């Protein structure tokens, strides 16, 4: 049997696939880069870049692991010779918000550590400003009680803040459902380009007028009901019919179980649930605590400008709030233009808290 495998740069790791004789190396890779803002927050970018010499050697090494093999490189020898020897360390490419929070719990300051590769000032300042906005640090950059709780959770600080805040509104159970899905490694809602109408109809069943977070919550609860009443095959068919990624549900369930254990450690009731008529406001307020720094207001020209900084963003067409002219909270990722990935529509009282 002839195998043709399309691989990302994950294939550079020590994975051996039996029968591989040939490797075609494009000389390119997708690499995540964090662009910090000293005003707080920042952007994850996914850029196409030239690979390094070490990556090229790793790619060639995938061929002929069990015998002779050939690597075809789709670039010139001069291009290879001009490549960097190795890649940029991840500490220089990622957000430091979670790392600084953890260092603060250990009584350490990143600025004072003697690092082999020291991040630039903007990245450190962005992380510190974000932690201050979340209430994890005070004006003197000292860890607050809330910050100490947040550091215990194996989550991005923004999501950890939402979980901690949920205790105040007695809606931790619902917030854990949402945060677990948002922390999963793959998308929940699948997009199928040749079935857009069917996808829209299926997704409409879960849409919530208050935003994408409550839409996610609706989907989680619907899947949980199906899982409790039906077998494995029926669950898969239900997910297929509604264009939902079951792998995300399963991963989110494991994440949630871990978060429940963590809640016990910090004395948060993971089963807390408000009255049904109060749940929407409680959940939106809790998520607002964690994502308040990622908010944007509608401009006269129909675009949105973040409340902190001057960055212009655009609401993603797949968002529940695509047609709503209200302040939005979002998770930001840079592409050819900035598009909102996770929206929420808080009430005015929630935005003022």
TrEMBL record:
Q: Which reaction does it catalyse?
A: ATP + H2O = ADP + phosphate + H(+)
Q: Name one GO molecular function term.
A: RNA helicase activity
Please provide the Gene Ontology terms (biological process) for this protein. Answer: positive regulation of transcription by RNA polymerase I
Q: Where is the Helicase C-terminal domain?
A: 1-107
The EC category is hydrolase
Q: Which GO terms describe its cellular component?
A: nucleolus
> Which SUPFAM superfamilies does the UniProt entry name for this protein?
P-loop containing nucleoside triphosphate hydrolases
| Sorted UniProt keywords | ATP-binding, Helicase, Hydrolase, Nucleotide-binding
List the lineage, top down. Answer: Eukaryota, Fungi, Dikarya, Basidiomycota, Agaricomycotina
From the Swiss-Prot or TrEMBL record, give the protein name: RNA helicase
Q: Which Pfam families match?
A: HA2_C, Helicase_C, WHD_HA2
């Amino acid at each position: 049997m002839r195998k043709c495998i399309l691989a990302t740069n994950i294939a550079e790791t020590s994975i051996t696939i039996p029968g591989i004789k040939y490797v075609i190396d494009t000389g390119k890779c997708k690499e995540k880069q964090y662009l910090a803002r000293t005003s707080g927050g920042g952007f994850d970018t996914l850029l196409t870049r030239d690979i390094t010499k070490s990556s090229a050697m790793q790619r060639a090494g995938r061929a002929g692991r069990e015998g002779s093999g050939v690597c075809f490189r789709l670039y010139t020898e001069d291009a290879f010779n001009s490549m960097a020897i190795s890649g940029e360390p991840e500490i220089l490419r990622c957000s430091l918000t979670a790392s600084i929070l953890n260092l603060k719990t250990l009584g350490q300051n990143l600025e004072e550590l003697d690092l082999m590769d020291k991040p630039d000032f903007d990245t450190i300042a962005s992380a510190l400003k974000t932690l201050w906005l979340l209430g994890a640090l005070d004006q003197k950059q000292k860890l607050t009680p809330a910050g100490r709780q947040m550091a215990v959770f194996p989550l991005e600080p923004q999501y950890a803040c939402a979980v901690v805040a949920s205790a105040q509104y007695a809606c931790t159970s619902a917030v854990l459902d949402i945060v677990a899905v948002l922390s999963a490694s793959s998308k929940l809602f699948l997009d199928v380009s040749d079935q857009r109408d069917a996808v829209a109809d299926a997704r409409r069943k879960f849409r919530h007028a208050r935003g994408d977070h409550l839409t996610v919550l609706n989907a989680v609860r619907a899947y949980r009901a199906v899982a409790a009443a039906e077998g494995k095959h029926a669950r898969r068919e239900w997910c297929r019919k509604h264009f939902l990624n079951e792998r995300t549900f399963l991963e989110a369930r494991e994440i949630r179980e871990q978060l429940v254990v963590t809640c016990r450690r910090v004395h948060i009731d993971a089963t807390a649930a408000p009255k049904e008529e109060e749940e929407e406001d409680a959940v939106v307020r809790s998520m607002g605590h964690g994502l308040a720094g990622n908010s944007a207001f509608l401009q006269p020209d129909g675009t949105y400008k973040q409340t902190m900084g001057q960055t212009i963003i655009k609401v993603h067409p797949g968002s529940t709030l695509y047609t709503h002219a209200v302040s939005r909270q979002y998770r930001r990722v840079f592409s050819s233009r900035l598009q909102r990935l996770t929206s929420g529509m808080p009430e005015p009282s929630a935005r003022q808290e």
